[in-house]
Amino acid sequence: MDLKIKDVAELLNVSETTIRRWVVDGKIPAYRLNQQYRFSRIEVENWVMEHRLGNGAQKLPFGNSNKDSENEAEVKAGQQQFSLYRAIHKGNVFLDIPGTSKEEILRRTMLEMAKNLDLDADVLTELLMDREQLMPTALNQGIAVPHTRDFLLNAQFDVITVVFPQKPIPYGALDGEPVHSLFFLFACQDKRHLHLLAKLAHLASNEEARNLLMQRPSKHELLDFIKKWEGSIRSPSLSEV
Questions:
Q1: Residue 110 in contact with residue 128, Cβ under 8 Å?
Q2: Residue 201 is part of a domain; what is its CATH number?
Q3: Bridge partners of 53?
Q4: Which of 75, 80, 114, 157 has the fewest CB atoms inside 10 Å of its own CB, making it the most exposed?
Q5: Residues 110 and 226 placed together within one structural domain of the fold
Q6: pLDDT at position 69
Q7: Residue 6: what are its φ and ψ, rounded to 5°?
Q8: What is the pLDDT of residue 27?
Q9: Tens of pLDDT along 139-171?
Q10: Which residues contact 124 (CB under 8 A, 6 or more apart)?
């Protein structure tokens, strides 16, 4: 799907001026069509996942160049602070899912997830594989975030299910490492989808979090860590790009 500057600004919660500056500086993928800049939704997603995230001064996800009032900014930041905790709480944690390939793990997981989401497991699997064929959703260091290209939950909440395969699986990650932890992401809004992608990328850069995932924690143990971790950080913002 082709996005315009205003679409990307809305999704990333920054001003159109900021997007134009990033484009001119070559810091966000874009192309020109009929003398106007256009963006690929998939390339923007990958940019969010790959971008190095930090605890900068900006409070809102992707910054807040739209000059919101301080009160509005605080409300938005509060809504997002425990978004990852809430999404995993709505989902599940599956240990020892059998399978030796990416597709096998995705299919077996969807057989479990689809029941609770009242969706078709085969359709979800095909949507996930379609996204993987465009570019693997690995974050490197053994962590992946399987998600679809444009499917959104018909709900008022987001769902993340965490899967630990019996053995790490080949995933096509840029660092060549097999994946031992998968965060299946299904959001109800585009903004929340990108926000959760950014937060998961931020989590994957945390050494303590990676060590915990290697231990294959239970849902209770993982939620306990996520709650403390999210409570200690500001909403993930794009660092100076």
A1: yes
A2: 3.40.930.10
A3: 238
A4: 75
A5: yes
A6: 37
A7: -65, -35
A8: 87
A9: 989 999 999 988 888 888 999 999 999 999 999
A10: 110, 113, 114, 117, 148, 151
Residues of the chain predicted below pLDDT 50: 52-78, 239-240
* Tally of domains within the chain: 2
Is 67 a domain residue? no
Strands 143-144 and 181-186: parallel
Q: Is the domain of 108 the same as that of 206? A: yes
| Spatial CA neighbour of 183 closest among 202, 197, 167, 168 | 197
List the end-to-end C-alpha distance of the chain, in Å, as a whole number: 24
Does one domain contain both 107 and 154?
Answer: yes
The amino acid at 225: F
In a domain, 73, yes or no: no
Beta strands in the chain (DSSP E): 2-3, 31-33, 36-40, 53-54, 93-97, 138-140, 143-144, 159-165, 181-186, 237-238
